[in-house]
Design brief:
single chain, rod-shaped, mainly alpha, 2 helices
Length: 173
C-alpha cells in the first residue's frame, strides 16, 4: 500500500473517467443502432406501400377481368347485359371490387402509419441515447474529482494510521 498510496487518488479518478468514456461510447453506439433501425423501417414502409399498391392494382385487374368474362359469357348466350338483373349483377361485382380496393388501401395506410410510427420512435430513442451519453460524460467529469478526493482522503487516513503506529502515544506517558 505504501507504494500505491500516493497514486491511489489518480487511479480512482482515472477509473471513473475510463468508465464514463465507456458508457458514453456505448450510448453513441446504441444511438447509431437506433438511427439505422429508423432508416430500415422507413425503407420497409416504402417497400410495403409499393407492394400494397401493386396488390390493389392486381385486385382491380382481376375484378375487371371477371366482370368482362361474365359479360362475354352473357353476350355469347344471347343475354342482354345492359338490362334488368344482369345490370344489378354487374353493379354488385363492381361494388365488391371497389370495397376490396378500399379495404386494401386502408390496410396499406394502417401498415404505413405503424411503420412510420416505429421509425419515429427509433429516431427519438437515438436522440435520447445521445443525450444520456453526453450527460453521463458530464457526470463522469464531475465524478472524477470526487473519486480523486475520496482517494486522497483514503491516503490521508492511511498516513495518519501509519504515523500513529510508528509513534504510539502510549509510549510517551
Amino acid at each position: 500500500m505504501a507504494v500505491l498510496a500516493p497514486i491511489a487518488p489518480y487511479l480512482m479518478a482515472a477509473s471513473t473517467v475510463v468508465s464514463g468514456i465507456s458508457q458514453y461510447q456505448n450510448a453513441q453506439y446504441q444511438s447509431a443502432v437506433a438511427t439505422q433501425n429508423a432508416a430500415l423501417l422507413e425503407e420497409q414502409a416504402t417497400r410495403e406501400t409499393f407492394a400494397a399498391n401493386q396488390d390493389i392494382a392486381d385486385q382491380d385487374q382481376a375484378a375487371r377481368a371477371e366482370i368482362a368474362d361474365m359479360l362475354a359469357q352473357m353476350d355469347a348466350s344471347g343475354i342482354n347485359s345492359s338490362t334488368g338483373s344482369m345490370m344489378f349483377k354487374r353493379a354488385g361485382m363492381e361494388s365488391l371490387a371497389a370495397r376490396d380496393r378500399a379495404r386494401l388501401g386502408q390496410k396499406r395506410d394502417i401498415n404505413l402509419e405503424n411503420t412510420k410510427r416505429q421509425a419515429a420512435q427509433q429516431r427519438a430513442e437515438a436522440k435520447a441515447l445521445k443525450k444520456a451519453g453526453k450527460l453521463g460524460l458530464l457526470s463522469t467529469v464531475l465524478g472524477a474529482g470526487t473519486s480523486w478526493l475520496s482517494g486522497q482522503t483514503m491516503v490521508n487516513e492511511y498516513n495518519k494510521g501509519r504515523l500513529a503506529l510508528s509513534n504510539p502515544s502510549y509510549m510517551w506517558e
